[in-house]
Structures are given as structure tokens and as C-alpha cells.
């Protein structure tokens, strides 16, 4: 995720911040779906701040391994990728770190390195320096109401808890607030995906955080997840969207303006236990990365920052002539497509009114009124007018479908309140003064100002 276009020379006003020292890391949270595999050499740790949500995914190897990288798209954010591009024969790599938080999340990469030194696994001797590499996705903006990022505390807790053979799928780790399909206004929830293959003694694993501008596509060409605009076909194909450009980006789409630029990225890792030369490992990275354009369409745009890391643990000698490195890369490419598909979580129900609306008195509605603060940059004012409930964003940013300075009606139904529109937005109020928007994995919580309410 690269920065936006050059801003005016005047220094921006200081931004309000949140004290991340009060946050509690959630480590190796068990997912509803998980990838299980047998590979003791490869350990994985995930860390999350549910207040974001945002997180980090750490891949730790049992000894130093060889690595390569392929960087694409117009907005990458990486650490130590230049070193891997030198193509040294010696295995130097300890860990690969994938993180949310845009460039702020790169702190996670160096944090893993310092944890290895602090724990005595690596030192200051020139031949025992820890080497972690990593890349980030952009998970701020309109997908959450705060600017929490994966930091040193979270990354070090994740690497220290790394375990073999288990990888949570969907909105976990670095994929906690990932989205796809922004080019077409789909804005579908995404996450992290993984797949594993074994052919004889050969092991291949593929992992990815899918945060692409394009849409995820299955092997039949169907779009897997999209908040469709009204009138779109139920069985939506990627070709429908691509061939329909620029019309498929309308109505309501005004183009990719500079405030929305360079905020999408897919960061991935492919690992094999076969010993490879630097040239073979680099070609593995390039071939698998290229293959991902089948499962994500379009892929590696000017507004993506796609990065793929390739690793060889060198546990198996080079293959016999009948099984070449190109075969490994081809198998890995298919595994990566499976990984892409497995990243897609169950999407929230549409926010249309559900069931018979509850009957709420004016007093009931007035009891919900007040100022609810989600973070230093986002707050929502709830008010009652004429027997209806309204919401208005009162800080410098919108609260999803509720813009700053404009009132939107909150429509009651059997489960709470909704703001009708293309994108899911549901609100539930608790008796303790808590407001939850879109309850579930991506929920945003706020407390009513203590001076307000009953």
C-alpha cells in the first residue's frame, strides 16, 4: 500500500490517536474453518486486535531456509525483499510476516526479528542474524471506524505462539478486515486462505491474504463474493463485469479518485520442502504469482500492491528427471487457487428489513438517543424525531452508510435497526449503552457518552 498522491506542502493537523497499550492480543483464535496439515518444519501464529479488527500472520521455520520474492502491482509495502532478490545460495530466512495496518503494520516484521534475538534464538553475530521478511495490506478507510494497527506487541505474541499444522481460514490474522471487488463496488468481506498438497515426499503449501481490487473467481468463472448492485444477475461472472467496463462500475461510481487509490493488495506465500536453486525458487514465485490472475480478476492493477514470497525448506533432495521444478510450480498454482477460494468467508446477510418490525414507543426510541464514540476519529449521534430514529456521523468521517453531517433513518426490524442500501449495515443497542454496528467478525462497538441517556 503506497502513499496517496503528493499532498499540499502545508503540514496536516495532528490526528487523534488511540492508546494501543490497552489492547489485548488474541492469539491463534480458533476459526470456524481451518486448514490442517502435517509439516513440523512450518509453524504459524496469528494475532488479532478484535477492536480493529486487524491482525498479523507469522510463518516461522524450524531452521534458516531459502527464499525468493515476486512483487507486482503499483503499491507494494515490503521489508527485506531487496535482500532476497540478491539470490544468495545460503539459507538466511527465519520467518515470513503478513500484516494488516498498511505501512504501519511493517512494524510487525521487525518485531518478529527482535523477538528471535530477545529469546536467544538469534544473536548479533554476523552469521546468526535473524532475518524476517514481510508485506502488508491496507485495511483502514471505509472498512472500519478506527486506525488500530498490528504492532510489536501483537507480532511478538504471535511468533512466540506459532504452532505447526494449523491455519485458520477467513477473517483471521492479517486478513481480519480484508475486502475484495472494490473496482466494481462489490466491497465483499475477505480474509486469509490456505491449501496443502503432498505428492510422495514432496510437500507444497500455499497461503494468501486476499485484499484485491478485483473479484475472487471460482473455476467456473463465477464471482464468489460481491455486494451486488440492484439489477445485477444472480449468477454473476467475472466476464460480465470485465466486459461491461466502464458501465459495470456504475451507477454511483465516479471512478477511482485519489482518496481511494492504492489501498488494495494480495500478499501470499508458497512453501515447498524440495531443495531448489535461487533461480528455481524465483521462478516458482513468478509462476505461482502469475497463476493467481485466474482466481482474482483483474489482478495486480496499478492500485494493488501484490507480493508473493516463495520458500524452500530443503528437506527433500532435488527431484528425479520425471518430476521437474515446473511441475512443483504448477501444482502450487492450483493450490494457490484453492487458497484464494478458501479465503472467502460467509458474507453477512443483506441489511434489508427482516421480519415484522418491533413496536417501539417514542420513549423507547428516546432512550437510545445520544452520542456514541467508536474511536478518536469516528462518532455517531442518535436522535429521535417524530417517532423515528436517526443517525448522523459527527466526526470527520462517515459511519459506513451514514455520512458526516447528514441524518439517515434507522429502520427497525425484528433484530434491531438497519440502514437500507447496497452494503450491509445493521445496528443493535444494548441496555448498558453499547451500540454494535454489523454484529459478527467485523463488528464495530461504541459506548454512549456517560453524561447522556437514562
From TrEMBL:
InterPro entries: ArgJ-like_dom_sf (IPR016117), Peptidase_S58_DmpA (IPR005321). One of its GO terms (molecular function) is aminopeptidase activity. Residues 1-21 are annotated as: Disordered. It comes from the Bacteria. SUPFAM superfamilies: DmpA/ArgJ-like. Residues 8-21 have a biased composition (Polar residues). Belongs to the peptidase S58 family. This is Peptidase S58 DmpA. The lineage of its organism: Bacteria, Pseudomonadati, Pseudomonadota, Alphaproteobacteria, Sphingomonadales.
